[in-house]
């Protein structure tokens, strides 16, 4: 039997004395940064008053965590650091000057993340591992105990070694970039201006569309055209607003009012003013969820259990065996209060609960 005082899979982390925390997630993708926001919320719950630093890659993390009061330093390593050795090593040595009480590696089998965790100085180091022994970690969580969902894995990691007082059966924190009241007000103003392009007498709600994704996750333009035509035919009172991708080109031939920003917080604020966001599986889908707007994620390649929007107002739809018209009918049924009377639903949709009453446009 394992000795809980020495076994890194059993020993508890103390609640007291954890003041400096480092989260090591060296990745440049927007979605992966947003999937870390529940972990920060969990650390704030467990270690009230602690200061949290984040190691990321590229500039996006600075925007994601800009309004997190508990987050002090957001260390953004240069992308492809081996091409920028001086700036990369300078930042690594800067981080090493601080001795942390707790360093968290939230990744499963990321060699880069584990290497940085080994390099940085910390009293306790926590991460997933397939074995009980680790030359890097002081506290190990078996990989088999990681939840399916990418946003929930780091939270489960942080809870595994918590003292009994905090190891209760809790739900998972929501993804949230913590938009300010001013940011939300600006987003509502933008959407009101965009909707002046459509008849105000018939528009009762706004539906945001993000029609871009990478690789096999991307739906062709013809699919989106058929999908949106079905929505408009059945629900002419719903206005469509395209969120334009970072490359700055409309994916829908500029048929709808559109919004573009290179700032993810401004993009999030505008999406937060919608009644619903519809997006393929991508970083912007996660941004919509983290902006606290009801979100329907469309999945044709990746695993819904790993990446699907979760939370009380969100849904996922597997479209692999559906036509665009069938997918549109499923969306209308999942959000029947928004679109009107539901249509028959093929299998594959995870229904959403009723949307909060009263639109978002004010």
From TrEMBL:
Pfam families: Glyco_transf_9. GO terms for molecular function: ADP-heptose-lipopolysaccharide heptosyltransferase activity. The keyword Glycosyltransferase applies. The lineage of its organism: Bacteria, Pseudomonadati, Pseudomonadota, Gammaproteobacteria, Lysobacterales. This is Lipopolysaccharide heptosyltransferase family protein. InterPro entries: Glyco_trans_9 (IPR002201), LPS_LOS_Heptosyltrfase (IPR051199). CDD domains: GT9_LPS_heptosyltransferase. GO terms for biological process: lipopolysaccharide core region biosynthetic process. One of its GO terms (cellular component) is cytosol. Keywords: Glycosyltransferase, Transferase. Transmembrane segments: none annotated.
């Amino acid at each position: 039997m394992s000795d809980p005082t020495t076994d890194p899979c059993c020993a508890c982390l103390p609640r007291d004395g954890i003041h400096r925390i480092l989260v090591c997630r060296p990745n440049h993708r927007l979605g992966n940064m947003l999937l870390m926001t529940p972990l920060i919320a969990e650390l704030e719950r467990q270690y009230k008053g602690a200061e949290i630093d984040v190691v990321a890659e590229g500039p996006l993390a600075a925007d994601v965590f800009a309004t997190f009061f508990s987050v002090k330093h957001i260390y953004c390593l240069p992308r492809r650091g081996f091409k920028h050795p001086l700036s990369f090593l300078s930042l690594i040595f800067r981080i090493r000057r601080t001795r942390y009480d707790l360093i968290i590696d939230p990744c499963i089998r990321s060699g880069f993340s584990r290497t940085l965790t080994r390099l940085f100085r910390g009293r306790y180091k926590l991460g997933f591992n397939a074995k009980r022994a680790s030359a890097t970690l002081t506290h190990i969580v078996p990989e088999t105990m990681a939840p399916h969902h990418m946003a929930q894995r780091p939270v489960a990691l942080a809870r595994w070694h918590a003292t009994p007082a905090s190891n209760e059966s809790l739900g998972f924190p929501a993804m949230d970039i913590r938009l300010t009241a001013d940011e939300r007000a600006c987003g509502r103003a933008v959407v009101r201006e965009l909707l002046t392009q459509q008849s105000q007498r018939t528009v009762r709600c706004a539906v945001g569309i993000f029609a871009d994704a990478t690789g096999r996750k991307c739906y062709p333009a013809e699919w989106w055209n058929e999908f949106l035509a079905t929505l408009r035919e059945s629900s002419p009172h719903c206005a469509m607003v395209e969120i334009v991708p970072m490359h700055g080109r409309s994916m829908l031939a500029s048929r709808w009012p559109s919004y573009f920003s290179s700032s993810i917080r401004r993009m999030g604020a505008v999406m937060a003013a919608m009644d619903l966001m519809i997006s393929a599986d991508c970083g912007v889908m996660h941004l919509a969820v983290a902006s606290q707007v009801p979100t329907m994620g469309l999945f044709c390649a990746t695993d819904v259990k790993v990446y699907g929007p979760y939370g009380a107002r969100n849904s996922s739809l597997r479209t692999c065996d559906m036509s665009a018209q069938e997918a549109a009918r499923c969306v209308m049924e999942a959000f029947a209060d928004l679109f009107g009377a539901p249509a028959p639903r093929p299998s594959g949709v995870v229904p959403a609960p009723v949307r909060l009453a009263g639109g978002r446009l004010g």
